[in-house]
């Protein structure tokens, strides 16, 4: 195994690989408007999707971002696009009444259909690939769970889901790490930063105004509208949408107490030798596993690099320090990559909720849409669109995710002090599910 000092390629950077092709944007060239119809806090997929739909329908939509446009998790994720599998796998669907279950799956599937149609209709340069996804069984007992999940997904979301025993998994992954797995052929992938950039372009073309370095510091009622205070001045808005997900801060204390920001860490390898990608990911699918502290990985859109995400320590670290643990996970799955170095390492904050389901709604008249629990590429895009339709009065029916009780806990003020405890428990659970890993064996 390579020495730890040798895992970083020359020119290594602590920056998302995705930003090489589509960096965040400084948009301070225009002053903030004094008034707007809808002020949108956050320039991620949710906020931009809402801005696009609102502007297309003649409303003045103003996006306000704390830093450069596209600096948050929308351009830091793995770019995996799926529908309702997390609601199945985590059991979060049980948070809904039994007679609502089919609606939950219907809208989850609808979020996947919506993002595909949006990319097609708008001609978005997002490197969208309908590549499918493989879920690896971390422990022998997890394979039966994946079999049940495949059946639930087929029944409720009508996706093409099938399982492979360990003896056949090399058809999908060039590794013996897992104990079989599940393949969902209908899922896909985007280049997350290019998708964000393309959404920015579409929203602007429709008439939306996008402003960077305009951190929102407060939102207050002002007659029949709101005064939105920012680092660059105050904007009066008829409606406000907060779409900050894992970056929700003290400017909106009600929402901050309901979103748990959890850091996820990702690395990119240097370009792989010719033919290696054919061996390790023969169908170029998205990949994840059944660990509580899961690994997720994929090829870069051009097929030259491995992008690998994981949280390998209960405690937050700088991305370069966490990269050592991720590198060990890469070699655990792919010993043949010993000697391949890392070119990028970064992190981003996932917006988790206490009930593990996404939420949209209003609080004191202010709209919000957030809490995608690591499934945000499609769902955040969909919730932004749904919120825009709600503001426009054009929904055929309310979203199943709209207006639900948005839980918090008495012990939680917005500072995620419990994350290391939960993460530590997850790591222990993963180790006990597969005791050989405690001894360093796969």
From TrEMBL:
PANTHER family: FAD DEPENDENT OXIDOREDUCTASE DOMAIN-CONTAINING PROTEIN, SARCOSINE DEHYDROGENASE-RELATED. This is Glycine/D-amino acid oxidase-like deaminating enzyme. One of its GO terms (cellular component) is cytoplasm. Residues 37-388 form the FAD dependent oxidoreductase domain. The keyword Oxidoreductase applies. The keyword Oxidoreductase applies. It holds the Pfam family DAO. SUPFAM superfamilies: FAD/NAD(P)-binding domain (SSF51905). InterPro entries: FAD-dep_OxRdtase (IPR006076), FAD/NAD-bd_sf (IPR036188). Keywords: Oxidoreductase. GO terms for molecular function: oxidoreductase activity.
């Amino acid at each position: 195994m390579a020495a730890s000092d040798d895992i970083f390629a020359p020119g290594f950077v602590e920056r998302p690989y995705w930003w090489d092709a589509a960096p965040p944007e400084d948009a301070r060239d225009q002053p903030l408007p004094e008034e707007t119809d809808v002020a949108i806090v956050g320039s991620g997929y949710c906020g931009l999707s809402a801005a696009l739909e609102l502007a297309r329908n003649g409303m003045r939509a103003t996006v306000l971002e704390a830093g450069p446009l596209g600096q948050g998790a929308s351009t830091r994720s793995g770019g995996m696009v799926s529908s309702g599998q997390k609601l199945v796998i985590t059991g979060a669907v049980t948070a809904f009444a039994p007679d609502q279950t089919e609606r939950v799956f219907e809208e989850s599937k609808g979020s996947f259909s919506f993002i595909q149609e949006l990319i097609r209709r708008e001609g978005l340069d997002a490197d969208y690939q309908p590549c499918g996804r493989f879920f690896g069984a971390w422990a022998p007992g997890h394979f039966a769970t994946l079999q049940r999940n495949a059946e639930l997904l087929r029944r409720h979301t009508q996706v093409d889901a099938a399982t492979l025993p360990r003896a056949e998994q090399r058809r999908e992954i060039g590794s013996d790490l897992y104990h079989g797995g599940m393949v969902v052929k209908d899922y896909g992938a985007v280049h997350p930063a290019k998708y964000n950039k393309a959404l920015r372009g579409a929203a602007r073309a429709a008439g939306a105004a996008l402003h960077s370095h305009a951190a929102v510091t407060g939102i207050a009622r002002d007659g029949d509208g709101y005064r939105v205070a920012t680092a660059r001045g105050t904007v009066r808005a008829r409606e406000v949408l907060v779409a900050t997900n894992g970056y929700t801060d003290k400017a909106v204390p009600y929402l901050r107490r309901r979103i748990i920001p959890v850091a996820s860490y990702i690395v990119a390898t240097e370009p792989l030798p010719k033919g290696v990608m054919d061996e390790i990911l023969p169908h170029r699918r998205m990949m994840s596993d059944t660990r509580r502290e899961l690994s997720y990985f994929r090829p870069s859109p051009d097929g030259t690099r491995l992008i690998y995400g994981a949280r390998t320590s209960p405690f937050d670290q700088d991305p370069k320090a966490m990269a050592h643990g991720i590198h060990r996970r890469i070699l655990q799955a792919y010993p043949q990559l010993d000697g391949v170095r890392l070119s990028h390492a970064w992190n981003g904050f996932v917006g988790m909720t206490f009930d593990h389901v996404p939420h949209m709604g209003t609080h004191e008249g202010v709209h919000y849409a957030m809490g995608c629990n690591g499934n945000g590429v499609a769902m955040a895009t969909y919730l932004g669109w749904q919120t825009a339709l709600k503001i426009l009065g054009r929904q055929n029916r309310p979203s199943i995710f709209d207006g639900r009780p948005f839980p918090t806990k008495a012990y939680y003020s917005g500072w995620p002090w419990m994350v290391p405890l939960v993460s530590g428990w997850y790591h222990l659970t993963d180790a006990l599910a597969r005791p050989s890993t405690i001894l360093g064996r796969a």
